[in-house]
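Example S7 (structure tokens).
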């Protein structure tokens, strides 16, 4: 028998909420965890594991609110992956949103990220969402944590829970992490709103419900940053006339930093305005033509009809090789579209196909 069709589970949340820690509880030392305030995960990472008789590919995603990336960049990265996951035919069985319970209040960026997550999923997919409160060991007393938990359920998470999302505490154990994933694997595959908007409706990321909110803030940030650049440029010109080289160098360094931030915001706007769905679909179709074994359809479609009906000992290895080759083709194409390096293909993506490495 060949490997069964694999499902994907997405792990999402704010930066520092414990996403990488959760993934490592499923499979030890599979991703790097950040020890400081900055997020360790900068790109989506795939980790494969087997839970009893089922294969699952867990995707660790960059956290919103990262100090090194704008939320627009993070949304674009996650959207690229989600669009390709849908185009490539990998099933999505569930999404886990992590929230650190020691956080005393919901800040504006936290609310924006949560709203964006809600919009990204869409109401039809909320039954496949699990909302987890994490880091209970960092709360001074359980009563304080329970009060925050009630507020989340009654206010910030209420609409998602009303539409089928499951909310629970996470005790930080490997056993509970695996139990949560096993439950999600019983779901029927879901299609998220961001996937429908990008692939079925042909919307640009900035025109999707999730992207529109970010785009508004991004345009405000860009205008503010343009003013900072102009101010830094004026100060640099004045400093150059003073004849003080140390002052001039400090002002030049500041100007260059402000200019880099402006370029970063412009790049984010360009990504938000791109037709990601069409770009990815065109590249996916183009790459598949060079990799016939990565074509669409079920695994059995590649096998001759008489071999599908009579899987005897002689034909079983042929069927297995055909399925394995087809998986290799699909995963190679998947990696190609995302622009992953050879190292990433070997150590991150190929395990998705059940391919033994090393």
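Recovered sequence:
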């Amino acid at each position: 028998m060949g490997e069964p069709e694999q499902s994907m589970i997405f792990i999402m949340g704010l930066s520092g909420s414990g996403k990488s820690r959760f993934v490592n509880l499923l499979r030890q030392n599979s991703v790097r965890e950040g020890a400081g305030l900055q997020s360790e995960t900068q790109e989506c990472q795939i980790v494969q594991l087997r839970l009893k008789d089922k294969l699952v590919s867990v995707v660790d995603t960059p956290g919103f609110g990262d100090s090194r990336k704008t939320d627009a960049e993070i949304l674009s990265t996650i959207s690229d992956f989600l669009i390709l996951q849908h185009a490539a035919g990998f099933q999505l069985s569930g999404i886990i949103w992590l929230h650190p319970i020691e956080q005393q209040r919901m800040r504006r960026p936290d609310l924006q990220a949560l709203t964006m997550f809600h919009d990204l999923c869409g109401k039809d997919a909320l039954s496949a969402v699990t909302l987890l409160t994490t880091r209970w060991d960092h709360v001074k007393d359980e009563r304080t944590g329970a009060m925050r938990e009630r507020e989340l359920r009654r206010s910030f998470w209420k609409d998602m829970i009303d539409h089928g999302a499951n909310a629970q505490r996470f005790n930080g154990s490997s056993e509970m992490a695996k139990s949560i994933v096993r439950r999600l694997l019983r779901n029927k595959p879901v299609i998220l709103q961001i996937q429908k908007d990008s692939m079925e409706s042909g919307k640009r990321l900035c025109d999707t419900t999730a992207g529109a909110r970010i785009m508004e803030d991004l345009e405000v940030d860009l205008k503010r940053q343009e003013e900072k650049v102009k101010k830094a440029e004026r100060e640099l010109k004045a400093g150059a006339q003073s004849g003080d080289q140390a002052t001039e160098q400090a002002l030049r360094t500041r100007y260059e930093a402000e200019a880099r931030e402006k370029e970063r915001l412009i790049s984010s706007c360009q990504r938000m305005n791109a037709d990601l769905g069409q770009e990815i679909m065109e590249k996916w179709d183009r790459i598949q033509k060079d990799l016939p074994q990565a074509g669409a359809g079920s695994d059995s479609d590649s096998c001759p009809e008489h071999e599908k009906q009579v899987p005897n000992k002689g034909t079983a290895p042929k069927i297995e090789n055909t399925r394995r080759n087809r998986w290799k083709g699909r995963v190679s194409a998947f990696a190609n579209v995302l622009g992953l390096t050879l190292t990433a293909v070997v150590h991150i993506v190929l395990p998705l196909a059940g391919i033994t490495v090393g």
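Notes on this example. Residues 209-242 form the longest helix (34 residues).
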